[in-house]
Design goal:
Number of domains: 1
Largest sheet: none
Protein name: TetR family transcriptional regulator
Mean pLDDT: 88
Order of helices and strands: HHHH
Number of strands: 0
Organism: Gordonia paraffinivorans
Distance between the termini: 47 Å
Number of helices: 4
Shape: flat
Length: 93
């Protein structure tokens, strides 16, 4: 994403700014990811709901692509996203 913005920002800007009738990159990726997750067993573990959890995850990853972390590793970021959206079920007795 950085390279695309660096070399052709004018064509990328419409895809990163929300406006009426035009999806953003986050909208497109979120919708595609949800198509795989909504009806899967994983969906029941996502909070506050699958759509919001996936949108948060996609947004966080896109933000990382635009401005890579200076102090966090990819694993750190993945763990924080997981902590934010994953709600384990009750432990079987």
């Amino acid at each position: 994403m950085q390279a695309a913005l660096r070399y052709d920002a004018a064509s990328m800007v419409p895809w990163v700014i929300r406006r009426e009738g035009h999806p953003t990159l986050i909208d497109i990726v979120t919708d595609r990811a949800l198509a795989f997750i909504e009806d899967s067993p994983v969906a029941g573990y996502l909070a506050p709901n699958p759509a919001a959890a996936v949108e948060f995850m996609v947004g966080a990853v896109c933000a990382e692509l635009l401005s890579p972390a200076r102090f966090l590793t990819h694993a750190d970021i993945a763990n924080r996203i997981t902590d934010a959206i994953y709600r384990p079920g009750p432990t079987p007795s």
